[in-house]
Design brief:
The chain has 542 residues and is of the alpha+beta class. It has helices at 12-23, 42-45, 56-60, 67-78, 86-100, 103-109, 137-154, 221-227, 250-257, 315-324, 336-342, 352-355, 359-363, 372-380, 390-401, 408-422, 430-438, 442-448, 521-540, and strands at 5-8, 28-32, 49-51, 131-133, 158-162, 164-172, 175-184, 199-206, 209-212, 240-241, 262-263, 268-276, 286-291, 296-299, 329-335, 343-345, 384-387, 463-475, 478-479, 486-488, 494-500. The chain binds flavin-adenine dinucleotide. Flavin-adenine dinucleotide binds at residues 8-14, 31-34, 41-43, 45-49, 165-166, 213-215, 242-243, 246-247, 250-251, 346-347, 474, 502-503, 520-524, 526.
Length: 542
């Protein structure tokens, strides 16, 4: 045997699994198709939001949370309704126990810290805010596991082999005990950039445990379209990619060929609020807007999305509505005050203050102007238009879409009706009522939700419209695993030697989220499932 365990994929789940294996004194080979520059996979790019329960950060803000409340929220939002949901449901319970139990103290011991203002990333399913932004965002999430990797590499316990792409699993008498793959030509691609696929050699490695941590399918739009469920309408002709090209889903087929079961392929967590990145790093690079609740959300023809589909509330309901609207895009319309206060961009590179751990930068979020990267998107992004009045705004929106579909008079009526409600202390408009409710929470009042005001107030101008595309991101289904992270075969029994964790395993069980996520559960799910699979693989390799 070449090692005690082979880990396939050096994203967050693979790093955590490797750290656990090495800490258990196992010799590990970590295989990664991308060059060293991309170590850490998607998690590096992430906003670093972690779903945790009943934390000191929540308590300081007066948020009362508990394991039981969280589990009720999770199960209600997930909507588990299939036979295949047996393991995902058990994983959901196990993750909630972890998130309400040792998760925070364990990560704290490893050096992680969190921004004190806990956020709502998905308002519809969560009874209370649970999205804890890691100090240092995505890079801060991977840092402790990269440190551990370097330590174990130095001691010889771990060997990291970049540009090694696994193409099949070796199965000997029903047991997975190795991998076969291609060595790709060295690449100078910078982090996140697409790297070449020129093959310069082959490899074959043996180990009693193989842990697959290869990520989801979001970078391959053909796969996304293939698995796109009918219930979400027609897959859009144009989508943006919220993930790098390496999120190619190929290992799912490789594992399936070795007998593993890929379940819940039709469940995905894509976003309806993507804008084109004016400085793309990967193919079709889109950035997700994390909106506050105030923008007016219109479909491609200018019709307001129905309540309770408000910005930042229910990602999947919005996506379904838009996919069925017959247009690939939708619009946020707002004034500059709301633009400055409520539009955040997801991703480490879009939040240099939090990523760079700048206290001053973060304090500036409470000031009225837009944070710098958002301002820059406003100036340089193709999807943003500004105008002093509604007629010009509608004309610019139509110019951008290349079709006369926004009727200025109808838009004016919509905004005037909203403005009338904004002045009321007990608005009957459901969105305005939701905004008022949101402002009762300190964190929202300070940095996320603008005080209700008239959109046509000249002091709030100019008006802003943002064209939104559907952005691919997370794969909710995946390889079915039991509570030890063992991949299950068609007969429901573990395939000896084969483990899976992270996004390729649906963040646990083959779909721990069911249909919907409460957010922050992806990084959290990678950490938890990577730890479980790493520990189980270590005991197998004992
Ligand atoms: C911009 C952005 C923001 C996000 N923000 C958040 C957030 O705030 N909170 C949250 O919970 N989640 C967030 N996420 C989601 C989260 O980051 C991912 O779901 C998670 O990091 C996936 O980790 P992973 O280890 O499972 O997979 P990946 O990070 O995709 O890593 C898999 C690795 O496996 C390698 N690989 C694949 N196939 C092979 C093969 N055949 N051979 C060798 N190597 C292979 C890939 O190259 C890759 O490096 C965000 C994601 C993005 C992109």
């Amino acid at each position: 045997m070449d090692a005690d365990a082979i880990v396939v994929g050096a994203g967050l789940a693979g790093l955590v699994a490797t750290a656990e294996l090495a800490a258990a004194k196992k010799r590990v080979i970590l295989l990664e198709q991308e060059p060293e520059a991309s170590l850490g996979g998607q998690a590096f790019w992430s906003f670093g939001g972690l779903f945790m329960v009943d934390t000191p950060e929540q308590r300081r803000l007066g948020v009362r949370d508990s394991r039981d409340l969280t589990l009720r929220d999770w199960l209600a939002y997930a909507g588990f309704d299939r036979d295949e949901d047996a393991w995902p449901r058990k994983w959901a319970e196990a993750y909630v126990d972890f998130a309400a139990g040792e998760m925070r103290s364990w990560l704290h011991r490893l050096g992680m810290r969190w921004f004190p203002l806990v956020q709502w990333a998905e308002r519809a399913g969560n009874t209370v805010p649970r999205f804890h932004i890691t100090w240092g965002t995505g890079p801060g999430v991977i840092a402790p596991f990269v440190r551990s990797l370097r330590r174990f590499e130095a001691s010889g316990a771990v060997s990291v082999q970049h540009r090694h792409r696994v193409t099949s699993l070796i199965v000997t008498a029903g047991t997975v005990d190795g991998v076969v793959g291609e060595i790709l030509a060295p690449s100078s691609a910078a982090r996140g950039e697409k790297s070449a696929r020129e093959v310069i050699g082959e490899f074959r490695l043996r180990a009693p445990a193989v842990v697959v941590t290869s990520g989801g399918i979001g970078g391959d739009h053909d796969l996304v379209r293939r698995y796109w469920p009918e219930r979400l309408g027609t897959p859009p002709a144009k989508m943006l990619s919220g993930v790098p090209d390496h999120v190619d889903g190929r290992m799912l087929e490789v594992a399936r060929s070795a007998g593993a079961r890929f379940i819940n392929a039709d469940r995905m967590w894509n976003y309806p609020e993507g804008v084109e990145n004016y400085a793309p790093i990967w193919s079709r690079h889109g950035i997700r807007i994390l909106p506050g609740p105030t923008p007016l959300w219109l479909d491609g023809r200018g019709g307001r999305l129905p309540a309770p589909i408000f910005p930042g509330f229910d990602a999947l309901a919005a996506l379904e509505y838009i996919a069925r609207s017959g247009h690939d895009h939708s619009w946020f319309v707002m004034d500059s005050k709301v633009f400055g206060r409520e539009l955040a961009l997801s991703g480490s590179e879009q939040n240099p203050d939090l990523t760079g751990k700048s206290v001053l930068g973060v304090v500036r979020r409470a000031m009225p102007r837009a944070v710098k990267p958002v301002e820059r998107f406003g100036e340089r992004g193709r999807d943003f238009v500004f105008a002093p009045n509604i007629r010009e705004l509608a004309a610019k929106m139509n110019g951008l879409a290349g079709a006369d579909e926004i009727d200025a008079a109808a838009l004016e009526r919509e905004i005037a009706a909203l403005d009338e409600q904004a002045a009321s202390s007990a608005p009957s408009d459901a969105q305005l009522a939701a905004i008022r409710e949101a402002r009762r929470y300190l964190s929202d009042r300070l940095i996320r939700v603008a005080r209700p005001h008239r959109m046509l107030d000249p002091k709030a101008g100019p008006l802003v419209a943002v064209r939104l595309w559907i952005l691919t991101r997370k794969t909710l289904g995946g390889l079915e695993t039991d509570l030890e992270g063992r991949a299950l075969g068609g007969d429901g029994r573990p395939i000896p030697g084969l483990f899976a964790a992270g996004e390729v395993a649906g963040f646990g069980g083959g779909g721990v989220h069911g249909y919907r996520s409460l957010e922050g559960t992806f990084l959290g799910g990678c950490i938890f499932s990577g730890r479980v699979a790493g520990r189980a693989a270590a005991s197998l390799a004992a």
